[in-house]
Amino acid sequence: MKHLEELGIVHRYLSPKHILVDWSLHCKISNFGYASNVIDSASFMAKAEGSCPERWMAIESLVDLKFTSKSDVWAFGVVLWHTMTLGETPYASINLIHLAEKLNAGYELPRPPICGQKLCDMIKQCCQISPLQRPKFEELASALNTYTNTAKAYLDLMSYPKHVGID
After folding, report:
1. Residue 54 sits in a domain of what CATH number?
2. 21 in helix, strand or coil?
3. Which of 6, 35, 72, 156 shows the greatest Cβ crowding within 10 Å of its Cβ?
4. What percent of the chain clears pLDDT 90, i.e. is strictly above it?
C-alpha cells in the first residue's frame, strides 16, 4: 500500500479477500480493477454494487464517494482490526444503512482482545473521521516494521477467549 500511495494510486477496494499471502508470509495486494488509475469513483460504485466492501470503506467514501490514499488507510485499519479479531465482521451489529451515521457520531470498532496497545492505537489512527488525521502508509510501514522487530508483544493470544480454539 505504501508503494501504491507513492505512485498516487488509490486502491478503493482494500479488504481481506484482496490480500494474498505467499509462502514467505509476505502480503500482496490484489484486485486492481477498481484502482483510481483504472476507473473513476462513480463507475467504481456502479460496477461494485452488491460487492462493495462498505464495512471496510472510509466515512468519506460511504457518504461522498470520495476515495483517496487516506480512505485506503481507513480500509487498512479495518483490515488490521479484522485480522486481530481472527476474522470478525467489522461493525457487525450495525445495519449498513446506519453505518455512516454511527461513524459520524463517534462509533469505533471495539478493541480486539489479542491486540497490543500500540497496534490498537494504530487501528484507531487509521480510522479517524478526518482524513487529515490519518497517517500515511509510509508511517504505518515504519511503525509495523518497528513493532515486528522489537521484543514487545503486539499480539496477546493468551487474552483471547478459549472458545475460539487458541490454546
Report:
1. 1.10.510.10
2. strand
3. 72
4. 44
